[in-house]
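Postdoc handover notes: sequence design on the structure in folder B. Input tokens:
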């Protein structure tokens, strides 16, 4: 530990020599923040990915831009002779980027990156935190990435790029994540246009917690995507909402943490059991799709 601390201090000194004395505080803060990011299991810079984490410090002096590459594993300046072959790089511009340590929505946070981007993301994250059932212990906002730490090596990772959202869970199943995020899940659904497959599975798990949320989910994602035959089948029922409530009673008993990429539903009418209705609810990176014929039947019921 002492040797690593000495290497850290020596690296700061070397970088100050390459740039300027006025950059010392920012260099020190940036290195400490980047080292924290390398410890997050799902982070871009985590060395468990078998890539060597590298930060490139840059600063413009008049018409000249100076650039220095640093190994976050070995805490030393890199050159063409000691450059690791497999590496992941991130830039930090000393004349633009910032490192902030502050409370965001009542949660301790470290913010790293371009101030204008961080301001936009900070506003989004504040609104997410307001909707959550359980707030994280702390989080790191790293350029377009937000890493929420819930303790015991459990994280929720949000990658936000414009209207695109990618959600990744670390050591959390969908049920646990749904209970932590709560109403932040439909909020994220309304704010971002494009989401990944894990988000849609998470949305399904959230919607299956109560009859009311499942009714909302069915009318938002399933009903508008039914083909004419499926829609006619439901509309022929005296009250298709009774069917939705019945379907919810089956779905609420599923092990949601083991759902695949598709939920297959088969509905038989007592009056004509030989002509069942089939509905496939498929989770994709393009959204939720409704299929005429699911690959596997998960739920079978009679009405």
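Designed sequence:
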């Amino acid at each position: 530990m002492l040797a690593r601390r000495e290497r850290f201090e020596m690296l700061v000194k070397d970088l100050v020599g390459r740039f300027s004395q006025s950059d010392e505080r920012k260099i020190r803060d940036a290195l400490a923040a980047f080292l924290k990011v390398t410890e997050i299991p799902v982070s871009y810079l985590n060395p468990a990915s078998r890539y060597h984490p590298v930060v490139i410090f840059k600063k413009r002096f008049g018409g000249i831009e100076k650039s220095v590459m640093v190994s976050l594993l070995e805490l030393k300046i890199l050159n063409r002779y000691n450059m690791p072959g497999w590496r992941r790089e991130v830039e930090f511009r000393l004349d633009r980027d910032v490192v902030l340590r502050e409370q965001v929505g009542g949660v301790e946070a470290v913010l790293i990156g371009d101030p204008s981007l961080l301001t936009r993301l900070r506003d989004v994250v504040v609104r997410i935190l307001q909707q959550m059932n359980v707030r994280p212990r702390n989080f790191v906002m790293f350029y377009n990435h937000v890493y929420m730490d819930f303790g015991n090596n459990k994280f929720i990772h949000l990658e936000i790029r414009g209207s695109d959202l990618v959600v990744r869970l670390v050591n959390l199943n969908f049920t646990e994540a749904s209970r932590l995020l709560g109403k932040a899940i439909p909020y994220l659904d309304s704010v971002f246009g494009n989401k990944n497959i894990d988000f849609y599975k998470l949305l399904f798990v959230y919607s299956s917690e109560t009859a009311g949320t499942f009714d909302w989910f069915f009318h938002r994602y399933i009903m508008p995507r039914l083909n004419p035959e499926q829609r006619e089948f439901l509309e022929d029922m005296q009250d298709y909402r009774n069917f939705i409530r019945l379907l919810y009673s089956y779905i609420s008993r599923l092990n949601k943490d083991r759902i695949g990429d598709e939920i297959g539903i088969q509905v038989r009418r007592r009056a004509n059991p030989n002509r069942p209705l089939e509905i496939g609810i498929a989770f994709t990176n393009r959204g939720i799709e409704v299929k005429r014929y699911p690959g596997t039947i998960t739920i079978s019921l009679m009405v």
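Context for whoever picks this up: The chain is about 35% helix and 30% strand. Don't rerun without checking with the PI first.
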